[in-house]
Amino acid sequence: MAASISGIGIGLGLSCSSNLSKSLHSSQSSGFRVKMTVSVEDKKKNYTLQKSEEAFNAAKNLMPGGVNSPVRAFKSVGGQPIVIDSVKGSHMWDIDGNEYIDYVGSWGPAIIGHADDEVLAALAETMKKGTSFGAPCLLENVLAEMVISAVPSIEMVRFVNSGTEACMGVLRLARAFTGREKIIKFEGCYHGHADPFLVKAGSGVATLGLPDSPGVPRAATFETLTAPYNDILAVENLFNSNKGELAAVILEPVVGNSGFIPPKPDFLEALQRLTKENGTLLIFDEVMTGFRLSYGGAQEYFGITPDLTTLGKIIGGGLPVGAYGGRREIMEMVAPAGPMYQAGTLSGNPLAMTAGIQTLKRLKEPGTYEYLDKITGQLVQGILDAGKKTGHAICGGYINGMFGFFFTEGPVYNFDDAKKSDTAKFARFYRGMLEEGVYLAPSQFEAGFTSLAHTQEDIQKTIAAAEKVLSKI
Ligand SMILES: *Cc1c(COP(=O)(O)O)cnc(C)c1O
Fold it and tell me: What protein family does this chain belong to (predicted)?
């Protein structure tokens, strides 16, 4: 079932919708189009990163830290990043010609596999008609209908260009609707890089060890209150001391931005009760979990419907997209239906809509999440077993296409628990895996992702690589 790896680390104890717990027989899984059957064998004999090194050295003079998003720079795992030439299915190739099994998936979007033939064909067709209209197009209706029918909380949706933008918009909306300014966020949860959220944020901020960022005015975070994840008492205290002032509680319903951390049983339910009682809006930031934990996201998986939801990553199918949505009465506050202003030159552009539509179509086919459950379960169990066998403290867990493990005894219920991980060991493990042809997120504090293109062979190779590397570090 899509839940915990028993006995080790994170116990999920999830109450999930039972239709997701069916397991798929291996004979059925052959229905998924696997684009590449490639071999990583014997590639590492001459594992060199010379071209990557040259390219990255040049990049460092051109862009801050050589990258356009911090975690890509590999700072927390040492060495320097590999520079990518191409991706296909579950694999990627760097500019030195090395091949990797990829568990980053462009940080989530690539859930049906990279550079899917049908997505590429649809994009090529759309492109013939142009790349941006700055005016309404039919494709927006199509994706909006798909999102609305999939995600329980969403009756109306606004498309934007990134998860960050989605979270900025939803925050303004929550404040506009409630007429209140304070919000609660959780330590280690990442909601993009907008000022009000850069307080105890996870992801790159966690990786770099920055408690927050210079340049964020105190006034911008003054109304942002924080609590440890999974700590309902701390949330109750905040509600008690800020009666009638809280606009929203925002969270990752399953944390991915300080490593994989699922909610304790009843945590989401308690948040729903508290927010309802206090006239506060509950916001699920499903930029990562949307269409990944199930077709209807974490809210469908756990059966808890928030007031508002943010999406991103998967719904853009590899192109830049974000979205926020929720109950009609709230969404109708958004301009031009209502007075809350938010806009975007490229929002709803036909290319991003097309990639999103094609990706969701594939995900909607029967058996997809069961397949993700099966292969991700095998992967995580294999890594944890390998860790045990080689005497490492390790814990981990997964839900369908999202997983994580920490080099610590566990259990991990929040960011402070996660920070007990042996990050130096993770760095050694990381470099070892890279050499074995396995590309993981370059930080202990990021979740991993599988896709429909990952094969049994990929999983078995990854487990074998993990065993080999774990026995050496
Ligand atoms: C990735 C992510 C964001 C930010 O999305 P961008 O597209 O990178 O701006 C926000 N929230 C969560 C939960 C995310 O995982």
Answer: Belongs to the class-III pyridoxal-phosphate-dependent aminotransferase family. HemL subfamily.
* Residue 417 DSSP SS3: helix
- Joined tokens for residue 172: 């303004």
When comparing pLDDT for 40 and 90, which is higher?
Answer: 90
**Structural domains of the chain in order of their starting residue, each with its CATH number:** 15-110+366-470 (3.90.1150.10), 118-363 (3.40.640.10)
Cβ atoms of residues 442 and 82 within 8 Å: no
CA of residue 193 to ligand 1 center, whole Å: 8
Q: Which helix (DSSP H) or strand (DSSP E) does residue 227 occupy?
A: strand 224-227
Mutate to test the pocket of ligand 1, among 288, 291, 443, 445 (most ligand atoms within 8 A of CB): 288
What mean pLDDT value characterizes the chain? 90
Residue 364 confidence (pLDDT) above 60? yes
Answer yes or no: are the C-beta atoms of 290 and 120 closer than 8 Å: no
Q: Is 364 assigned a catalytic role?
A: no
CA distances from 209 to 228, 332, 427 (A): 17, 39, 15
Nearest CA to ligand 1 atom 11: 191
Catalytic residue among 100, 103, 190, 324: 190
Retrieve residue 10's tokens. 């994170």
3-state secondary structure 50-104: HHHHHHHHHHHHHCHHHCCCHHHHCCCCCCCCCCEEEEEECEEEECCCCEEEECC
pLDDT band, very low/low/confident/very high, at 31 (cuts 50, 70, 90): very low
Q: Is the pLDDT of residue 42 over 70?
A: no
Instruction: Report CA(163)–ligand 1 centroid distance (Å).
Output: 4
Q: Is 285 a catalytic residue?
A: yes
**Which residues does a 6 A CB cutoff place in the pocket of ligand 1?**
162-164, 167, 190-192, 252, 256-257, 285, 287-288, 312, 322
Strand partners, 323: 159, 311
Task: Work out the average pLDDT over 247-269.
Answer: 97
Which runs of E-coded beta strand occur in 245-360?
246-251, 281-285, 308-311, 322-326
> What is the Å distance from ligand 1's center to 109 Cα?
11
The encoded tokens of residue 200 equal 């105890």
- The size of the chain, in residues, is 473
Model confidence at 449, in pLDDT bands (50, 70, 90)? very high
Task: Note the pLDDT of residue 25.
Answer: 31
Output the CA 331–ligand 1 centroid distance in Å. 21
d(C-alpha 44, C-alpha 401), whole Å: 28
Query: Closest ligand 1 atom to the C-alpha of 257?
Result: 15
pLDDT at 15 over 60: no
The letter for the amino acid at 13 is G
